[in-house]
């Protein structure tokens, strides 16, 4: 019996489902960072706004990377529905703390897919995610560095404006 | 044509020479590519069966299923949905595209 299915698709459907979930998560991250950019613009943190505009773009690139992987492997990529984007933040510190929280969630989700792919012997998916594992290390590190800078600078007096100016160091 | 899996109401066949699949719904046989089969899987697996037992969400326990770019329309009751879910999960295992041990819903 000719194996049409295996000839048409080179990953497991369980990986495909999880990757579709990840597509949604990256889209959600992109939309969340766009909301943060909006908040920063409206509250006078223009450098931070720039930082989040860039982050939003990067998250969309992550999403497209996974989307294209599903195309390449013969899967069924699903264009995500993105809802429930928070636009309310109590301070710029709150914005960056939420960012770190969000990135940690994304890291956990990616690790979970790697684990699952390994369990079911889906080597293509496992290797594909190598890049994402390392990317998450970088992203978490960036936000942690910014939070450290915030801590050192302090939020009193001109602190907030100094914080915003220094965010420029993390925009390549 | 080979049978990939047969459930209570449905049968999935593979037609290797035509590089496609046929899904026998009883009253109609639908020709499908693997992409369309994946799309069917997505739709069927996303049906929340618990809503069938909550009249606020699904008063009559019916599900409208459109297949192959809206070429076909099916109206399924709860038992048929469960059976189709079973067919889909077992079929993908038979096809070697799923590693999962399927949940046995009913026999
Ligand atoms: Fe990302
Ligand atoms: Fe990220």
Number of domains of chain A: 1
The main sheet of chain B comes to:
4 strands, antiparallel
Strand line-up of the largest beta sheet of chain B: 1-2-3-4
Structural class of chain B: alpha+beta
| Count of individual beta strands of chain A | 0
Order of helices and strands of chain B: EEEEHEEH
Strand content of chain B: 25-35%
Q: What is the CATH homologous superfamily assignment of chain A?
A: Ferritin, core subunit, four-helix bundle
SS summary, helix count of chain A: 7
**SSE string of chain A:** HHHHHHH
Anisotropy-based shape of chain A = elongated
The CATH architecture of chain A can be given as Up-down Bundle
Largest interface, counted by CB within 8 Å of the partner chain's CB: A-B, 20 and 19 residues
Number of domains of chain B: 1
Keywords, separated by commas or semicolons:
heterodimer; A: 172 residues; mainly alpha; Ferritin; 7 helices; 74% helix; 0% strand; elongated; B: alpha+beta; 4-stranded antiparallel beta sheet; globular; binds fe (ii) ion
Overview of this protein structure:
The complex is a heterodimer of chains A (172) and B (107). Chain A has 172 residues and is mainly alpha-helical. Chain A has helices at residues 4-8, 13-42, 46-72, 92-119, 123-128, 130-153, 159-166. Chain A has a single domain, classed as Ferritin (Up-down Bundle). Helices cover 74% and strands 0% of the residues of chain A. The longest helix of chain A has 30 residues, at 13-42. Chain A is elongated and about 70 Å long. In chain B, the strands form two sheets. A four-stranded antiparallel β-sheet of chain B has the order 1-2-3-4. Chain B has a two-stranded antiparallel ribbon with strand order 5-6. Chain B is an alpha+beta fold and 107 residues long. The relative contact order of chain B is 0.17. Chain B has one domain (2-94). Chain A binds chain B through residues 1-6, 8-9, 12-14, 16, 74-76, 78, 119-122, and chain B through 2, 14, 16, 19-21, 34-35, 38-39, 41-42, 92, 95-100. The complex binds fe (ii) ion (FE2) (2 copies). One fe (ii) ion (FE2) is lined by residues 26, 29, 59, 62, 106 of chain A. One fe (ii) ion binds at residues 26, 29, 59, 62, 106 of chain A.
